[in-house]
Amino acid sequence: xxxxxxxxxxxARLLAHLNPSMNNLQTEGSSNFRQENCRAKGGSPGFxxxxxxxxxxxxxxxxxxxxxxxxxxVLHLYDVVNTPGVTADISHMDTGAVVRGFLGQQQLEDxxxxxxxxxxxxxxxxxxxxxxxxxxxxxxxxxxTLCEGISKCCPMAIVNLISNPVNSTVPIAAEVFKxxxxxxxxxxxxxxxxxxxxxxxxxxxxxxxxPRDVDVPVVGGHAGVTILPLLSQVKPPCSLTQEETEYLTxxxxxxxxxxxxxxxGAGSATLSMAYAAVKFADACLRALRGDASVIQCAFVSSQVxxxxxxxxxxRLGRNGVEEIYPLGPLNEYERVGLEKAKKELxxxxxxxxxxxxx
Length: 358
Ligand SMILES: NC(=O)C1=CN([C@@H]2O[C@H](COP(=O)(O)OP(=O)(O)OC[C@H]3O[C@@H](n4cnc5c(N)ncnc54)[C@H](O)[C@@H]3O)[C@@H](O)[C@H]2O)C=CC1
Ligand SMILES: O=C([O-])CC(=O)C(=O)O
Hints:
This protein is an alpha/beta fold. Helices cover 47% and strands 16% of the residues. The chain is globular and about 55 Å long. The termini are far apart. It binds 1,4-dihydronicotinamide adenine dinucleotide (NAI) and oxaloacetate ion. 1,4-dihydronicotinamide adenine dinucleotide is lined by residues 52-53, 55-59, 79-81, 121-126, 135, 139, 142, 145-146, 162-164, 166, 191, 194, 222, 267-270, 273. It is found in: Peroxisome.
């Protein structure tokens, strides 16, 4: 009996490898197969991560990079199109994580069940001339549906929300979780890491340093003037002229638009975003593992200002956001920037909240 069960499991595994889109079909109702599959040879114990929107411009390189992350044992790739192909492709990488694909709304719940971390880059990107807020009408509904699934299937998962406009989609997610009774503000994080990545790069360029040695806190939100780099707090300490400060602030605030214009209608940042998303997801996983002093900027439920959500430096831990740091001393230029940021951010937050409450 045991021998024939083993043979059956091996055949099932082989079939799933030949056609990865069958993976989830094979696992349905077969907990033995699922357990086996989660411990593929070479696979190490680790975290279960789902990417929603995995076949997109951000999703594909993000999936590839997460497959390379040794902290990931199981990687679920969900999209409404093309996941069988992306899954087949990525599953051939000889790294530890086991990859499974999920296609279409009817497989969303299977994609989410049991996940520790859910990363969401689902939704439409900008074209030249558009603001991130112009994406609201389409992406708000997408984020709402996906978050309803999270509430139902993995309410304890850490959520990394990438879909724009982040300033509104994070409040949308929070409202969906509140409605479902599963909201834990510590576990919902809007990804603003690309602003930090850009700030480190551009500041390093001006200072003639290696970007890996530079750390710029970027606070506020993730659109235009709401992106507020705190250039007075750059590490290592440096002194920038007013001209350099204004140039850098504007370049960091408009980094997304710079890419949108260069891509000339073919979308927005995807590769640098995937890099930033993985950097951020890796920080979340290290914190979940119990590493101390994991500190990153993120757009989270916050009391740092009078607004209900704000991006600032946060310390991550086993439950998500464990501590939110105050903004620290700002210079006059940053104080003016903060007022502008708060004005726009307040409206975007309110728009997200009323989308769900209406
Ligand atoms: N937070 C940030 O710093 C950044 C955010 N973004 C945002 O990320 C989002 C994705 O950008 P791209 O990957 O370039 O767009 P894309 O159009 O290339 O990919 C989006 C993917 O989402 C999928 N999708 C659409 N509806 C879905 C649903 N209901 N469920 C699951 N998947 C669904 C699409 O099929 C597509 O594969 C955009 O909203 C963009 O503005 C992009 C770069 C930086
Ligand atoms: O600019 C966009 O639309 C995409 C994005 O958020 C970024 O690159 O920062």
